[in-house]
């Protein structure tokens, strides 16, 4: 029976291969400089084995990845203990060519700043330890960079105006969050549209969701709930795709959406 890749280590393997190729190193060259066999490194890249910290430290020095490879390794180590639904969601997001997000209550996870995410996790997990909250924050704020590094999907986020005007944490936290959204939008790293609070359309009131589109397979939808999230297909995708189309119709155009965010930012000055 052929070996099956270790799901939690797939992203690390892709990162290792990408860094090696970017530096123009062959498997044999990396093997010679780290002391690990080329066949072993190939298994790391294909997620058939999980590497030890020693290999990662040596590869960091050889490839000059400035901590990026180590962070990917640490993410994989944490993912081993993540619930199955989370691993499936993360893998699907990183393979998507386009991610459309709707968020009626909070800034979508991949677009959150560290302080904003910390406030959300602290308030939402009063029984969690500081270490657990810090771990969740690290995972969340690293999502955007991971998506950009691994597949760079097109990101479109529609949020309610209440998200823009809410006070999460403090004025300083909200200022930094709004500045971050405006920067992402200006750089076209993500297009952000705002649905006005006086809109008469409420089809998205059922809760936040994300539509994940792929080049080689059918669209999936990630539905969020209090215990995490799940990936769905079929009729749910059809229904929520229609809802998203309506949300786009009711949302303000890009320039007007930026004006709403800029005005909210000025009020916090």
TrEMBL record:
- Recorded superkingdom: Bacteria
Q: Which PROSITE patterns match?
A: HTH_CROC1
Q: Which Gene3D superfamilies match?
A: lambda repressor-like DNA-binding domains
InterPro entries per the UniProt record, alphabetical? Cro/C1-type_HTH (IPR001387), DUF5753 (IPR043917), Lambda_DNA-bd_dom_sf (IPR010982)
The HTH cro/C1-type domain is annotated at 16-70
- One Pfam match: HTH_31
Under what name is this protein listed? Helix-turn-helix transcriptional regulator
């Amino acid at each position: 029976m052929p070996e099956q890749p270790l799901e939690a280590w797939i992203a690390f393997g892709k990162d290792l291969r990408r860094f090696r190729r970017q530096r123009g190193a062959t498997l044999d060259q990396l093997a010679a400089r780290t002391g690990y066999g080329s066949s072993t490194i190939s298994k790391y890249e294909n997620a058939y084995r999980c590497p030890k910290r020693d290999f990662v430290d040596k590869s960091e020095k050889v490839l000059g990845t400035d901590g990026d490879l180590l962070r990917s390794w640490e993410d994989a180590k944490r993912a081993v203990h993540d619930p199955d639904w989370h691993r499936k969601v993360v893998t699907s997001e990183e393979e998507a060519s386009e991610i459309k997000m709707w968020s009626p209550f909070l800034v979508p996870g991949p677009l959150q700043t560290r302080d904003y995410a910390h406030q959300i996790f602290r308030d939402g997990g009063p029984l969690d330890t500081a270490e657990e909250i810090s771990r969740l924050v690290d995972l969340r704020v690293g999502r955007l960079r991971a998506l950009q590094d691994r597949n760079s999907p097109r990101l479109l986020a529609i949020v309610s105006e209440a998200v823009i005007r809410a006070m999460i944490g403090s004025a300083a936290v909200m200022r930094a969050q709004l500045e971050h959204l405006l920067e992402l939008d200006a750089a076209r790293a993500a297009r952000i549209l705002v649905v006005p609070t006086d809109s008469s359309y409420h089809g998205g009131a059922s809760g936040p969701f994300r539509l994940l589109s792929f080049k080689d397979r059918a669209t999936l939808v990630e539905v969020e709930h209090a215990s995490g999230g799940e990936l769905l297909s079929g009729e749910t995708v059809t229904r929520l795709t229609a809802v998203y189309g309506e949300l786009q119709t009711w949302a303000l155009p890009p320039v007007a959406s930026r004006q709403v965010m800029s005005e909210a930012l000025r009020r916090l000055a």
